[in-house]
Specification:
Strand content: 15-25%
Number of helices: 3
Number of strands: 6
Strand order of the largest sheet: 1-4-5
Shape: elongated
Order of helices and strands: HHHEEEEEE
Distance between the termini: 133 Å
CATH superfamily of one domain: Head domain of nucleotide exchange factor GrpE
CATH topology of one domain: Nucleotide Exchange Factor Grpe, Chain A, domain 2
Amino acid sequence: MSKKQTVKKTTPKPVEEKTEVKGEKVDEKTKALQEEIEALKASVAKEKDDYIRLMADFENFRRHSAEAKLELVSTASADIIKGLLPVLDDCERAMKMLTDADDKVAVEGTELIYNKLMSFLKTKGLEVIKAKDEKFDTDFHEAVAQMPVAEEDKKGLVFDVVQTGYTLSGKVIRYAKVVVGI
């Protein structure tokens, strides 16, 4: 029995030495694996950041493209509407001249054409700049003449409109040409 005890006593010592050697190797492998995991985490984080930035750039590009298309359509429609303004002016002049005439059919026809054209343009964002008897405003009016007025409260107001002004979606596309009372 003493041999077994001796064997038992000597057997654990080599096992402990092997464990220490294996423990050092395990610690080194663990450190190496942890370093590799950290490197991979950093790589994944960098790739994720690059992906998020790329998606943000793409979203900005898409939004910018949509804005550019909208601006192009808006500019094109503004040019078309500016081209139709002389037609509106001619209709207004024709209606003024026809009010003195006896031909009611011509007056009604001209008013019908004018109203249809004007209502269509209003759906596209065209608005008439109100000028007559309004305070002169350089943001909307262009003074082409000045006229002396007797009443003090009429000074600085628009006395007459020579040419109607228009805004398109809040932007002035043609200033109202007016006569200002001084």
